[in-house]
Amino acid sequence: MPIQVLKPKFHVDECLEEIRECLEKGWTGLGFKTVEFEEQWKKYTGHKNAYYLNSNTVGLYMAVQILKMQNGWNDGDEIISTPITFISTNHAIKKQNMVARFADVDEYLCLDPVDVEKKINNKTRAVIFVGYGGRVGQLDKIIEICRKHNLKLILDAAHMSGTRVNGICPGTWDGIDVTVYSYQAVKNLPTADSGMICFAEDKYDKIARELGWLGINKDTYARTGDKGTYKWKYDVEYVGQKDHGNSIMAAIALVQLKYLDEDNAYRRELARCYDKLFANNPKIRVVDAPYKDECSYHIYEIQVDDRDGLMDALAANDIYAGVHYRDNTEYEMYAYDHGTCPNAHCVSQKIITMPLHLWLTKADVEEIAHLVNKFTK
Ligand SMILES: *Cc1c(COP(=O)(O)O)cnc(C)c1O
């Protein structure tokens, strides 16, 4: 059996049972399970607001859209972001006719507060911080900087489902305006595709709920009474999108959420195995995580000099490592900032994501680490 870098594991029978409930009730869309999952997610994380979406991407788009609209930002204004991320993060800025201004990353591959502060100018309106690999990095310092310079802060928490710091979900920290999670197929809480947007302020949550359903001010579920009666009249306040999640995805999410802490604990065990097996190899630099014991470990990355050679050597043994991610300033549309983030650029050429998921055994990890050590010697 080939070993993939990421592979979801579902509690199949329980998921099917939850989905069956939707099919029997005849309610597969917005409402019902989506409402139930929003409530469960709020309980699990401590977020005050949670609106279930069809992806993290639409959530990031909406986060910038709403903050721009509500704070009077202009086209051409800037948001500071990281070059080491999935392009959703930076497209969210560009989509609203704003400019992503790239800042460099630290040893956790998260935004480096020192460089962030250097990149602030009179057009800067916000920062998007990616909790890369589930790591919280120096988010606390970024919050301070945003306070000091009166900037909004968006947290792309696509990797952070289940990450805590001293028992608290960092997405709920004071000073973060909006946190967006992903439940895409290979994330820590997998569905097929869905996500959650959690605004700190109630008024933004309300706008999100309207924008995410074409701008209609009352959703179908809310308009359906206890007796199945249906109030058809509504108003339309915005030219919105169709971003909301559905009950089939939420049914899967409800089941997977029950196992998230257990799943993440196993990911951490595997990560500790890798740590130990790489500890005596000076040719390998493991990307370190702060608050290791509470990190979601969405991915486990190492840096090696001959990254591409190592990928080939592993593939020859039917082991498929990955790369997360290519320096975004290498893409033409973001090339205007190429060369401004030397650390990110260097890292993106050396970084390799080791297989880490719930199908792996410790013996698998030992085999993989053995091959990596042999290759790098
Ligand atoms: C996966 C991912 C996204 C996008 O999530 P979707 O739910 O697939 O839209 C955004 N940012 C990062 C860092 C990601 O890894």
Small-molecule binders = pyridoxal-5'-phosphate
- How much strand content do the residues show? 5-15%
Give the overall silhouette. Answer: globular
Distance between the amino and carboxyl termini: 26 Å
How many helices does DSSP assign?
12
Detail the poorly predicted runs: none
Compute the number of strand runs: 10
Q: State the major sheet.
A: 7 strands, mixed
- Kindly report the CATH topology of the largest domain: Aspartate Aminotransferase, domain 2
Q: Specify the helix fraction band.
A: 25-40%
- Overall pLDDT level: 96
Report the CATH superfamily of the largest domain.
Type I PLP-dependent aspartate aminotransferase-like (Major domain)
Helix-strand pattern: HHEHEHEHEHEEEHHHEEHHEH
Sheet/helix structural class: alpha/beta
Q: Please report the first level of CATH classification, the CATH class of the largest domain.
A: Alpha Beta
CATH architecture type of the largest domain? 3-Layer(aba) Sandwich
Main-sheet strand order equals 1-7-6-5-4-2-3
Radius of gyration: 21 Å
How many domains? The number is: 2
What's the quick description here?
Belongs to the DegT/DnrJ/EryC1 family. The protein has twelve helices and ten strands. It has a seven-stranded mixed β-sheet with strand order 1-7-6-5-4-2-3, sandwiched between helices. A three-stranded antiparallel β-sheet has the order 8-9-10.
Descriptive key words:
single chain; 377 residues; alpha/beta; Aspartate Aminotransferase, domain 2; Aspartate Aminotransferase, domain 1; 2 domains; 10 strands; binds pyridoxal-5'-phosphate; DegT/StrS_aminotransferase; transaminase activity
